[in-house]
Write a structure and sequence with these properties.
There is one protein chain. By secondary structure, the protein is of the alpha+beta class. The protein folds into 2 domains: 152 residues, FepE-like (Bacterial polysaccharide co-polymerase-like, 2-Layer Sandwich), CATH 3.30.1890.10; 134 residues. Helices cover 67% and strands 8% of the residues. It has 14 helices and 4 strands. A 4-stranded antiparallel beta sheet has the order 2-3-1-4. A hairpin with a 3-residue loop joins strand 2 and strand 3.
Length: 382
């Protein structure tokens, strides 16, 4: 009868040298003990630092930057956590850390090897609440703390450099806009002043007000003369000198009023002339106001770039400075290996106690090979 092939545990159990418990204890117990010792010794230390991205608004500078046109972040709508983590894993940050801590000399390795070593050993992760944690596990607590400290400063410095680069680009554009606005303002001011000097009009609003006041005065004088004329008619005849004088004054005032209300722009001090001249003046004034508004806005934004440079270092808040974690650190690969070997040993022992159906009984072949009654049993069977 063919037997079912043995499993991995069955194959290990069927190994003749593992028939005795002492041998199995040596094969499995010694590696378990060694891995357990390596889990705790040599002792490893965990250096940790926690950071949180920040913005000028959280520092009370939001209103100031908003007035200067610098309220928006130079990184746009990108998540600050992802930016900080990406910057922390960049080559520029590793180079800054190596330079600050002199890792190439302390480890005795080339720059490329140190970069690879840092990539494997340093861990930058995102925690809940928008917190970035930088940690490193090493046997040397001083070096681990120095590296984490260098990473913290290098990330802040790199973020500041990126912010200043973006602000520099923004400043160059604003400087060009300010120059253009300055030229436009000067040209608009010159056209406005030239027209005012040419037509001898200081302020369009005053000129319009003078014409309106003159028309009102003439209308008031005409009404007054008509009242006086009506009173005179009650006393004097039409041939009276006083009546004739009032009629002449009223006719002169009515002529002046008609000239003032004339829409023909050729008549001086008339509504038409004032409208014609003030229309051009108001257009020039609007252009001047537009150019002045552009200049003031660009200048305010340009001043905001100086504040952005000053606030560029306020990109990360250090919640916990670099320190050595007080919790005992375990070497997880060695612990996992010890657990795996212990589980395999337990499976072997269970297999020996309860072998699967149809599987060879551990130790049976050895007993069968040394049993002197084997030939008699086979002969009787035949």
């Amino acid at each position: 009868m063919s037997r079912r092939p043995n499993s991995v545990v069955g194959s290990i159990t069927g190994w003749g040298r593992l028939d005795r418990f002492r041998n199995r204890a040596l094969v499995f117990g010694v590696p378990i003990a060694l891995c357990t010792v390596l889990t705790f010794y040599p002792e490893r230390y965990l250096a940790v630092a926690t950071l949180a991205p920040t913005d000028p608004g959280s520092l009370g500078l939001g209103g100031t930057l908003g007035q200067l046109g610098a309220s928006s972040s130079v990184f746009g709508n990108q998540a600050a956590i992802e930016i900080a983590m990406n910057v922390g894993e960049s080559q520029q940050v590793r180079e800054a850390v190596i330079t600050q801590t002199h890792l190439d000399r302390r480890l005795g390795k080339s720059m490329l090897e140190v970069h690879r070593w840092l990539t494997r050993r340093i861990d930058i992760r995102s925690l809940r609440g928008g917190i970035v944690q930088i940690d490193m596990q090493d046997r040397d607590p001083v070096m681990a703390k120095d590296i984490v400290d260098a990473y913290t400063g290098a990330i802040k410095q790199r973020l500041s450099e990126i912010s200043r680069q973006q602000t520099k680009y923004k400043r160059e554009i604003l400087e060009q806009l300010v120059n253009d606005a300055t030229k436009g303002l000067a040209e608009a001011q010159a056209r406005y002043n030239s027209y005012r000097l040419q037509h001898q009009e200081a302020i369009p609003e005053v000129q319009t007000s003078k014409v309106a006041d003159r028309i009102g005065s003439l209308e008031g004088a005409i009404r007054s003369n008509r009242i006086s004329l009506a009173i005179a008619h009650q006393t004097y005849t039409d041939n009276n000198f006083k009546v004739q004088e009032l009629k002449a004054q009223t006719e002169a005032l009515e002529t002046q009023l008609a000239e003032a209300k004339a829409t023909n722009p050729t008549n001086d001090q008339s509504v038409g002339s004032v409208v014609a001249s003030t229309t051009v003046l108001f257009q020039l004034q609007r252009e001047l106001s537009l150019q002045r508004g552009l200049y003031d806005s660009y200048m305010r934004f340009l001043q905001g770039t100086s504040v952005e440079d000053l606030a560029s270092t306020a990109n990360m808040r250090i919640l916990e400075g670099p320190h050595i974690d007080t919790e005992r650190q375990l070497w997880l690969p060695s612990m996992a290996m010890a657990i795996a070997i212990a589980v395999l040993w337990g499976a072997v022992e269970f297999y020996r106690v309860r072998p699967p159906l149809g599987a060879p009984v551990p130790g049976a072949q050895l007993r069968y090979a040394t049993d002197p009654r084997r030939d008699d049993d086979e002969a009787m069977h035949v």
